[in-house]
Design goal:
This protein is an alpha/beta fold. The protein has one domain: 3-Layer(aba) Sandwich (Rossmann fold). Helix content is 29%, strand content 27%. A seven-stranded mixed sheet has the order 1-7-6-2-5-4-3, sandwiched between helices. The longest helix has 14 residues. The chain is globular.
């Protein structure tokens, strides 16, 4: 099932991420896809701050992995854009990162799909017709409506 939402700016995209964090079970893996600048990290910021308030969430484009933790959760945020092959993703330890995390968000996950032997949720973020508008297509078996939790 695919649920689609249209947001009018970064705050709404973050709110969807926040709402989504409350809906997923522990050890969930979320694949974030979309063009550069679409809002993948914005979604991740809302998601991570829902679980670990006050986190300074930045894109892990150059570090490849950012880990956020407190006494309740460990959330790993990966950006695989710069990797060129599945073996590089394996060398990074994607499988171990997933196993050690309560939640894992992966931007540009295509390179590591063969390593993912777990159920995943997919969030595709597309540019909308307006400058700040985004279309979020969320795929997974959730009984959740963000308007109910706002």
């Amino acid at each position: 099932m695919i649920i689609e939402y249209i947001t009018g700016g970064p705050r709404q995209t973050e709110q969807i991420g926040s709402d989504y964090a409350r809906a997923l079970p522990r050890h969930s893996v979320i694949l974030l896809t979309g063009d550069l600048g679409a809002g993948k990290t914005c979604f991740a910021r809302g998601f991570i701050n829902e679980l670990i308030p006050g986190s300074i969430v930045t894109s892990p484009t150059f570090t490849l992995v950012n880990e956020y933790r407190d006494n309740r959760y460990t959330v790993s945020h990966l950006d695989l854009y710069r990797l060129k092959s599945g073996p590089e993703a394996a060398e990074l330890g994607v499988e171990d990162i997933i196993e050690a995390s309560d939640y894992t968000l992966i931007e540009w996950p295509e390179i590591a799909l063969t390593l993912l032997d777990v159920p995943v949720y997919r969030v595709r973020i597309l540019m909308g017709a307006e400058e700040n508008q985004r279309i979020l297509q969320i795929e997974g078996e959730l009984k959740w409506n963000p308007s109910e939790s706002a």
